[in-house]
Amino acid sequence: MLEDGAWRRSFIPTVFFWAGAQPNFWSTEAKKLLPALQAIFDVAFPGTNHNVQPRGPIMGLVCLTFIFIPDYFNIHPKVNQRLCSWRSNFGSTAIALVTDFLATSKDNESDDDADYEQELSASLLENWAFLYEDLENCDPDKICRLVFMIEMIESAHINATAGSLNVPAFDTDALRVKGMQAVIAASAATVGCIYGF
Fold this sequence. Notes:
Largest sheet: none
Distance between the termini: 43 Å
Strand content: under 5%
Helix content: 55-70%
């Protein structure tokens, strides 16, 4: 399992891919995750006769490392302190991108940084303008085209799911569309929270 790197190269990206398509990927129920992990395991490691168990090593590694599972943490309360690196990447990426955007968008060096950043943030939050390519014209056909929104989606999700497998138990193409809707919404909400902070 670990010799050829299939765990990190394909299994984990596929778990991220599946989790990103869930209605609420911030909190995934163990009863939904278990069959998904089994389907992913069967494709990632064909010929390996292993049943993913609710309290087994595969579920434990995924829950401890990547995904917050309320049911699982009721069993293992000390694990509750761990954050999901994939999910937390949304927040840290948003902070970095927004900070850079605010720092590089200032025209006049004599302006007070705090006032300028607050005014710009407030204007970008108005009608969710930060989502659009043209900040003055919020055209729904051009949503999520502002450079840092594209970078946010790429950095927080697309890079993490590169190498994900085609799992026949999932409708992979439909899951990709559904997953991107959830990821775009999460990215937009995260960036909105950063601007609102």
